[in-house]
Design brief:
CATH superfamily: Metal-dependent hydrolases
CATH architecture: Alpha-Beta Barrel
Number of domains: 1
Shape: globular
Largest sheet: 8 strands, parallel
CATH topology: TIM Barrel
Strand content: 5-15%
Order of helices and strands: EHEHEHEHEHEHEHHEHH
Number of helices: 10
Number of strands: 8
Strand order of the largest sheet: 1-2-3-4-5-6-7-8
Structural class: alpha/beta
Length: about 280
Amino acid sequence: MTSFPPIDAHFHCWQLARNDYGWLTPALAPIYRDVAVNDWQGQSAPHGVQGGVLVQAAATEAETHFLLTQADANPRVLGVVGWVDMLAPDAPARIEALARHPRLKGLRPMLQDIADAQWILQPELAPALHAMVECGLVFDALVKPVHLPHIVTLAQRHPDLRLVIDHAAKPDIAAGQWQPWADDMLRVAGETQAYCKLSGLMTEAGPNPVAGAVTRWGKRVLKTFGARRVVWGSDWPVLELAGSYAQWWDETQALLATLDVVDRAAVMGGNARELYWL
């Protein structure tokens, strides 16, 4: 693993004129602009990052095709996590069609935006989840702490589904939220094979957090999942709601300072290669 350059396992790009980003409004002024893969490269390359996973930001299949087009145009996009209507009668066929693109590595229903915290457990979703397993796709779980017990159930029902918890399940760091997040993350780590993304924490700490504001939560993730099941990502440009790419990079290096060189390389790239089969 030490021979691989760092991988950013979670970044975004978008074009506002596509008009399917329901959450992205002028109220989010720091990130309400067009963002291209080249813009991400400008932020990540100075830190030695040479590839990344481009993740969906809109709940449309059209955006998935848009992201795959970006991947076709830029070899630094090592993989794409897209979206599909998992409740559609032909969801398995849609998933199989999308998975024929070699850069499609996962799918992400936007669970954090669905009112029913148990939505993912409805029986009608089983065919889509089975198709994901058959196609070797990763389930990116965009969740909040309230969803974690249901992710355990999901993993137990579908033991062959490869899972990763996005943004460490987004604990409300600004409000000091610790429990039940900490114990539920322990359950996920102990009772499933899920990975966890070390990403998004600065955003949860609020605008312009002080250095070290996320350390307690980041260290909990590392201790709970272990260095071989934690995957680093920037969540850029959403990250800019709180700070810069360079700030998150520096925070990460401080979090990983006690790990040996092999474990650091795993978190910073090796685990992403294994999770997403990059």
